[in-house]
Amino acid sequence: MIETRNLTKRYGNLVAVNDINLKLEEGDVFGFIGPNGSGKTTTMRMIATLLSPDHGEAYVCGKSIYTNQEEIRRLVGFMPDFFGVYDDMTVLEYLEFFCAAYRIDSSARRKICEEKLELVDMSFKRDAMVNELSRGQTQRIGLARTLLHEPQVLLLDEPASGLDPRARIEIRNLLKRLGELKKTVIVSSHILPELADVCTRVGMIEKGHLIVDGDVAEVMKKARQRIVLHIRVKDRTDDAAKLLEQVDVTESINVTNNQMIELTLNAEVEDYSSIPTSLVGAGFAITLFREEEVNLETAFMELTKGLVQ
Asked: Which of 29, 78, 182, 205 is the Cys-Cys partner for 34 at CB 3.0 to 4.6 Å?
């Protein structure tokens, strides 16, 4: 559905996007992660045919961004991080205006608009003025607008930017729904938790380079150099820590101020069943024993260096 080959964009001496190779299939929800200025928006604008590359190629549904721009624009729904709205229109009028711009038959426009409003849970605002909407509601109307022409590919640039926690959750739920509809989605963000349970794949971009690209589980595994365990015992925490220092699989150990034992295992160790066995055998009562979760934030910190343009 989306393929880029050595896609590159320069602005003078600045290489904004540097030889990006990416391949996404139908139904992929791709989390495009990176700090502001790393090249996310530039990449998406080139795929959407809104910006010409200096080098390389990109295909959308098998069509080249150089020779099939009109066809690609019919296949793509692009939602920028900030977009203009028309203050003197109701929500329904606003969507019908864009239906006309997409050359959707006039007899079908009202029904399509109603369907998209229902999809983004905004039917209750159909007659409200656009300038009366909250930031989160405006984002959802923008997403409805992006979906009017039934695009196969969605490019969503920071869709949760500037939203309050509740609005971010609502946008995240919408993204899940789009994945279920078999759309191919690229969603960019620098707020990592909002992508963790939405995406099937993630890519991390830094200073124009795509340094990580893979399934979410693969990226997490790559980021986890060593297993870290969090352990709490009922009493005698320091004695328990001294005992665990002697266990073969232990690399390092730390006791926090709240009496939590943080135990880092040696590299490549997967089986740590000896640890609770040793504690119980020595008479310690375990009240908490869990493996530290590797999430997108920790993966990003492990795999990137924090470089920007």
From this structure: 205
In single-letter form, the type of residue at position 262 comes to E
Task: Express each pLDDT in 162-190 by its tens digit.
Answer: 677 777 777 778 888 887 888 899 998 76
CATH class of the domain defined by 2-219:
alpha beta
The correct CATH number of 225-293 out of 3.30.420.40, 3.50.30.10, 2.60.40.10, 3.30.70.100 is 3.30.70.100
From residue 266, alpha-carbon distances to 107, 142, 161, 269, 274 in Å are 67, 49, 39, 6, 14
Buried b (16+ CB within 10 A) or exposed e, 204-226: bbbbbbbebbeebeebbeebbee
Contact 18, 8 (CB under 8 A): yes
pLDDT higher for 220 or 133? 133
Average pLDDT across the chain, whole number: 87
Task: State mean pLDDT over 118-142.
Answer: 89
Q: Which helix (H) or strand (E) holds 191?
A: none
